[in-house]
């Protein structure tokens, strides 16, 4: 005996039509969820990964910015230092995180552009992240102890040529921005100096003041207290510093090839929804215009240089081109 279905027959054409309609509506549902998430954002604390050790220019500057952004967004911002793998571990963790705006990266062009060039086996690239903004420039200088006999780069070069291999320079982890700057100076000056890898943070100045190096390349922000206390002197810097007009730039000292520029930006994982990016960008722009922040940055000789996401993306590409050119000129890349 045959059993007839109590359900009405549905033609193949009607079934396919219903299926197509349901598929078409899936993006709309996803889009609505994104809108709702953006409206609620931020609903909890935001974690900012700093792939550097505490105490250095990046850490100090990021904490100043994070404090102002916290007030603009109304939720806590938690700084998480993760310098493992010379910064690669922290950077990679953000590039692989969920793009929901609750994990950000505060890092430099040295780690985001330079390091992958020097270490091709790294699995991250700047294109794996969403730029939120460029925040500030980080002027660096070549330092000596205050009692050192050299008053300028010319005297350092003359000494190094008469005593090849005797000068030691501390310059951060191998392949870092600071290390490459020293190599650029070494190549352009045609001198033989030993470059001592350090852990970053305050380790460069510690090596210099502890007698383990005669020179060190370090951000001015990291060593300004030693400068003011008369314990260290800057022989040349990457940028002109208004408060210290006597500190000449590398270009003014006759070494225009030592021109690598480092700046810090804030980034989110790739795929961050536009409404959330807009909220973050507005908060960072507001922070960058805060007079108190500008004053704090000025005292540390970190130079505020805000750029929006599109401008930051273009600045990254420009930095990539100039860095590649500089590395080739210094003989560090073929």
Key terms for this structure?
D-Maltodextrin-Binding Protein, domain 2, 6-stranded mixed β-sheet, single chain, alpha/beta, 11 strands, 334 residues, 5-stranded mixed β-sheet
- Overall SS class: alpha/beta
Strands in their spatial order, largest beta sheet: 2-1-3-10-4-11
Strand elements, count: 11
Q: What is the general shape?
A: globular
Low-confidence stretches: 1-10, 28-34
As a percent range, the share of helical residues equals: 40-55%
CA-to-CA gap between the ends? 84 Å
CATH class of the largest domain: Alpha Beta
CATH superfamily of the largest domain, by name, is: Bordetella uptake gene, domain 1
Tally of separate helices: 11
Order of helices and strands: HEHEHEHEEHEHEHEHEEHHEH
> What count of domains describes the coordinates?
2
Average pLDDT: 88
What does the main sheet amount to? 6 strands, mixed
CATH topology of the largest domain: D-Maltodextrin-Binding Protein, domain 2
Report the radius of gyration as a whole number of Å. 25 Å
How much strand? 15-25%
- The CATH architecture term of the largest domain is 3-Layer(aba) Sandwich
Structure explained in plain terms:
The protein has 334 residues and is an alpha/beta fold. The chain has two domains: 43-137 and 262-329, 3-Layer(aba) Sandwich (D-Maltodextrin-Binding Protein, domain 2); 140-237, Periplasmic binding protein-like II (D-Maltodextrin-Binding Protein, domain 2). The protein has eleven helices and eleven strands. The protein has helices at residues 12-40, 57-73, 88-95, 109-118, 153-162, 177-189, 203-209, 220-228, 274-288, 291-300, 309-329; strands spanning 46-50, 77-81, 103-108, 129-137, 140-145, 168-170, 194-196, 215-219, 232-237, 263-269, 303-307. The strands form two sheets. It has a six-stranded mixed beta sheet, with helices on both faces. Strand 6 (168-170), helix 6 and strand 7 (194-196) form a beta-alpha-beta unit. Helix 2 (57-73) packs across helix 9 and helix 2 runs antiparallel to helix 10 (291-300). The chain is globular and about 65 Å long. The termini are far apart.
């Amino acid at each position: 005996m045959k059993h007839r279905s109590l359900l009405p027959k549905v033609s193949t054409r009607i079934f396919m039509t219903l299926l197509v309609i349901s598929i078409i509506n899936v993006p709309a549902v996803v889009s609505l969820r994104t809108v709702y998430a953006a409206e609620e954002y931020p609903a909890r604390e935001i974690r900012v990964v700093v792939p550097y050790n505490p105490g250095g220019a990046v850490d100090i500057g990021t904490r100043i910015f994070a404090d102002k952004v916290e007030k603009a967004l109304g939720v806590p911002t938690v700084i998480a230092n993760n310098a493992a793998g010379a910064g690669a571990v922290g950077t990679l963790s953000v590039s692989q995180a969920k793009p929901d705006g609750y994990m950000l990266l505060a890092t430099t062009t040295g780690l985001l552009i330079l390091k992958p060039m020097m270490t091709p086996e790294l699995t991250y690239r700047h294109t794996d992240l969403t730029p939120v903004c460029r925040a500030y420039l980080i002027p660096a200088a070549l330092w000596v102890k205050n009692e050192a006999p050299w008053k300028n780069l010319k005297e350092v070069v003359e000494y190094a040529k008469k005593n090849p291999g005797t000068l030691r320079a501390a310059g951060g982890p191998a392949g870092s921005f600071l290390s490459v700057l020293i190599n650029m100076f070494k190549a352009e000056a045609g001198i033989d100096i030993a470059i001592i890898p350090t852990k970053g943070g305050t380790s460069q100045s510690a090596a210099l003041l502890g007698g383990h190096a005669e020179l060190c390349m370090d951000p001015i922000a990291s060593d300004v207290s030693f400068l003011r206390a008369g314990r260290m002197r800057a022989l040349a810097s990457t940028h002109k510093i208004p408060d210290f007009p006597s500190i000449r730039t590398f270009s003014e000292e006759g070494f225009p090839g030592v021109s690598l520029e480092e700046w810090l930006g804030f980034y989110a994982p790739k795929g961050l929804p536009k409404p959330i990016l807009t909220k973050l960008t507005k908060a960072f722009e507001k922070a960058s215009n805060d007079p108190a922040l500008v004053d704090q940055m000025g005292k540390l000789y970190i130079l505020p240089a805000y750029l929006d996401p599109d401008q930051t993306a273009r600045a990254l590409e420009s930095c990539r081109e100039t860095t590649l050119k500089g590395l080739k000129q210094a003989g560090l890349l073929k």
